[in-house]
Amino acid sequence: MVTLSLQYPQIPLLFLGCMAVVIFLAARFLKITNVSMALLTAISFLLVLFYLIFESQLLQMANHSFNGFHNNLARLFSSTAFYTYEPGAILITLITFVLAFLVSIYCAEYLNLDSRQHAFYPLLILMICGLIGMLFSANLMVLYLFCELMSICAYVLVAFRRRTDTAIEAGFKYLMMGSVASIVILLGIALLFISYGSINITDLRGSTSWPVQIGVLMFFAGFCLKSALVPMHTWLPDAHGRAPSSISAILSGILVQGVFYVMLKVTLELGFDHVLLGTILLCLSLLNIVVGNLMGLVQNQTKRLLGYSTIAQMGYIVLCMAVGLRNNLAIALQSGFFIIVAHAFAKSLAFLTKGIFYYYVGASEIKHLQRASRLPLFPSLAFGLAIISLSALPPFPGFTGKWIALTSFFTLTDNITVLSALIFLAGSLVAFGYYFPMLLILFSKPQIQASGDNEKRKQKKISPWMGIPIAAMVISILFISVAPQDLMDVTMEAAQFLMGMMR
Amino acid sequence: MKTQELISLSVLLVKLLPAFLLLLIGKTIHRYAKWIALFASLASFGLFIAYIPTLQQGLNAPLNFDYLPSMGIKLSLNIDWLSFPFLLTEEFVTIFAMIYAIGYIKSDERNHIFYALLLLFSAGMSGTTLANDIFLFYFFWELMLIASALLVVNWGESAKKTAVALKYFIITHLGSLFVLVAFIMVYSQSGTDHFSALWDGVQMYPETIPLISSLFLLGFSVKMAVVPFHIWLPDTHSEAPMPVTIMLAAAMLSMGTYGILRFPMSFLTPSQFAIFTLPMMIMGIVSEFYGAIMALVETDIKRIIAYSSVSQMGYILFGLGTLTLSGVVGATLHVIYHAIVKALLFCCIGWIIKAVGQRDIQSISGLRKKMPLLTACAILGALSIAGVPALAIFNSEWLIFSSGFQTPYIGLAILEILGSILTSAYILRLIGTMFFTQGDSSQIYKVPFSIKLVTVSLTILTVIAGIFPKPLFNYVVNELPLILGGKW
Question: Within an 8 Å CB–CB cutoff, is residue A388 touching chain B?
Fold first, then answer.
């Protein structure tokens, strides 16, 4: 059982920053191969993960062997720039590092066909670094800077395959829309700074003057765009659909949700009324569910479809949070966190297996999924598992999350909540309209091949670099399905923390 | 953990484990897939039979597993008298379908997936009946749906199989969602998902009870395929390969009946449920007439039998709706008898399709002289479904008909009986055209032995079940204290 506190978030951030530079230099001057770069990246993520889990023990040990170590560290990092107790952020951070670790192992094989890997891994590390910094920052300026770090890395990574027009187009679109959001956020921060004379989040409370209100609203609006809330979602299907699958897995799996969580936490902390915030988010989330699911029906590219599915799933997450905020309901917030975790694993598993299909048999459109029959059954089963978990069929985590959410909704009797619960259910029914055909195509009988095609029909083997991360994800999804109680405890702590913020 | 707790689990595991084995490493052993699957279903049936003495002594104990303690969700498996008839139906139908599949499905390299899915489908049904809590019930309910939809889409018999499977999945899943909403409402009012806790008496807001019951009824009616929720059935049943059709028609339809008995009827008192008497009886009659009339005008022989299911489910809903002792017993017996007879009829149809290679009723004629064995089986099946005494369905129909007269709605009861004339009409048309018209069907192909074996043994079972209804009746009557609390 992990305790959800992190005393020095600076340490992993510093370490990751250094590793980005080290890997870049090593790749540039020592000409190390893709596999070693990927391994270095994976090891640095793993070390940070260990640090996160064992921080208190490590600090104790260090204090034991070097007297006064703890005090020196405290003096060194005595800024107010970071939160130290932040269960929600830690939950998201842990998942981020698990995903990032698995993705970087996966890239050891997946990126073999690309060039410029020396740019890829440092950017990946810096993007993760930006996300983590954002999650913990207690200072609006630091928050903004980390947000920009994350966003810029994400723009470049989306356009990583620069030989294809579509990737450049998607990256450019993401860049333009993201920059608008950044400017609006910066303006909001400036307004807050003018009114209060401070940018420490904890100092900024209590004023109801109009610049403050507008500042908070601008901050909110900017982050709504970055977390792809309809009608500001248009960049997401392009960006997630065109980026390399390994990047889409992180972008779709946890990045958007992380940004949303930061927005939620900071706006609450800035004194936004939680009932009003909940109501606005409720409307946006219903739009997300409707638009995401309906647009998912008309897609023919697998990754774009998964992008729209992310929009719909964001809708479910935001809806849970909104109901929790409106009604002071911890269990709804908890279900929001639960769905974040469930979705993170399922969606990144879907993207990674999609990457396998693309890498080995060139499947990019939905109808190409049939070619998966040339591969071993394992990736198809993994993709099926991810889709089934996303479409909330029992006993997988997606269903457990929805069950908790809906049961908490039905304990309330106000019409708006019940209506939104019905839209929730209707959305998940519509979602079958696009999830199920994918499964059908994936598992349907292959066409009878022309004779002389025998060499092609020969089965391909899947590289263990790709197989192992996928197996790990499958195992973690199955583990959460069998024993969801641990996750319930962790998410409860995060939900209680958010409850404490609703003053 | 006691032995009797483990049996309910092992009934499931002997199907689930071979299914996963076949899915994962089936490629290397696909030649033996059918034998593994057959053996698994036989073992499951054997374990289930071994459980009967325990059940008779009242020693059955649920197997519990704390799943989400903080939410009060506890997974639990149990066999009781209410699930017994449905589990029995499902288990023997699986065995017959497996043997039938050995002759019917051509061996190829994807065999192992077919048998794995068939096992999963069967495990979904046994799990649904074995589940002793809402969460697990819903899980197996959906497993049943997914496995059968994948079977239809992969081994469907015409070009439109994908569309048919999608239609089947979406409509049936819509029904499942109704059930899910009802589950969630029950759960959020009671705070537990365990059946026994629910039966000990749940305090629910009285104003939500009609809503919850109607959600349950709607959801389970979709699975039962009563009019107007039947639209998935004719397509799916005629599209699926014959072994899957047998499982769908003979076993899966009864799961809807089980749901209605298990949920709204068990944990509501008869007085709370009484407002649904008239709607259920009327829906039953509409379904009975509609299915029979459609069966009269269809020309595809497989669709005729499919529509006959819609009609027969009407009888069951009518029997349940009367809320009388003989109605409920009759409906449950009808589930078992209908399973035997419908499996028999589909086996005969499969035999004909294999032998003649045609599905259109106009192009099949004069089979009587060429296939005497088949003729005998088909005639016995047809007489049985038409409700001729001393054959299986007569006993349950008698109970259902008589239950109608115990309600104030005598008119409906008379309509119900009149409707059975239509049943005789469509089945006689089918039999008459195919067997007793003059003409020579062209070539007769050879039919695998396993198909003949299953058909003949089902015919024998039909006769035996009709002549000796007593043992089954005694088992079925045991469920009543569970539903009625000894009140009706």
Answer: yes
